[in-house]
Design a protein that fits this description.
About 35% of the residues lie in helices and about 15% in strands. By secondary structure, the chain is an alpha/beta fold.
Length: about 240
Amino acid sequence: MGAEARPNEYGKNSGHRFAVVIPVYNHGITVKAVVLEAVKLGFPVIVVDDGSTDITPQRLQGIPGIRVMTHEQNLGKGAALMTGFKVAAEMADFAITLDADGQHFPKDALAMIAAVPKGKKPLVTGYRKQMENESVPWTSRMGRRFSNLWITASGGPCIRDSQSGFRVYPLPETLNLKTQARRYQFEVEVLVKAHRNKIDVIEVPIRVAYPVDRISHFHPFIDFLRNSATFSRLIFRRIIGLV
């Protein structure tokens, strides 16, 4: 079961190394500000451009202290994260992920890091308490509820925000989970696979904002079908006893 953690100092003193991974697809309006705030954390920053066709490449040019990986075509958020994880694993024990649309506050990563227990390598996910506000798009609120329910049914952890993209992933453990989803469904599948493989899942409260210029690539109908297919596969594997 997922547990809400109170920040402590273990993460800072554990000797673990951290890197930031930011997947981006056509977020040219917001990505530069997000990346500049992430750089302030003092960790290596890896930006994965997942086949953007807007001004994203230009906005990333000249930002010191970052490494940009590029997919020639759009492969999906999960694929972008996996690309970033492979690079991050060469230099870090954990990958901090956040979205490029400006909804996250990169500084909140410090509370998530501080919640890592000494000697442990959990998956830490940000719990967006403000998600129930009426100002939050209804698709986001309903999608989160649906996802939370089915993650539990699939044998995953019982958590409150299964769709949060602000996370701290253990490396190389996450790369070894053999996830199949490579779009948004990666973020729900990885929670189930982590729980089944005895990786603790911890929730930490974070802030969230929805800028007026925020761009979302979530498609309610198509992603509902993709989510349903992913959960069906995970539930089937649970029934027949496969991790």
